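Continuing the batch. This is chain 6 of the set; chains 1 through 5 are on the previous pages. Same settings as before, nothing changed between runs. Recording input and output for traceability.
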Amino acid sequence: MRRGIPAFHYMVAIAGGEDIRCAPYATYGTSELSSHVVAALHERRACLMANHGMITIGESMSDALDLCVEVEALAEQYLNCLAVGEPVLLNRAQMVEVISKFGSYRRLKEDVAR
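Output for chain 6:
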């Protein structure tokens, strides 16, 4: 659909910001696509790529894969929301609050996993 995932759910913040951006389309393997992806990843840990898929980054491959699973779930939830109407989005202040709490959320999640 060439659209990002807005703040329809607070977990969007797990990707590092108040939305998950969608990089514009360019042919795979080109510097044009990599430029679009770098821009979409600015201050983020995940982005969608128009007509390709997604990219996630993390401190380890395991972290990147975990984020990939989260983003895929969010994409499915967002699509389901769109099927019944336009979702009510969280505002910037609400997302800033969530983002500020995510540092401790990630540490808590790691502690629980141990």
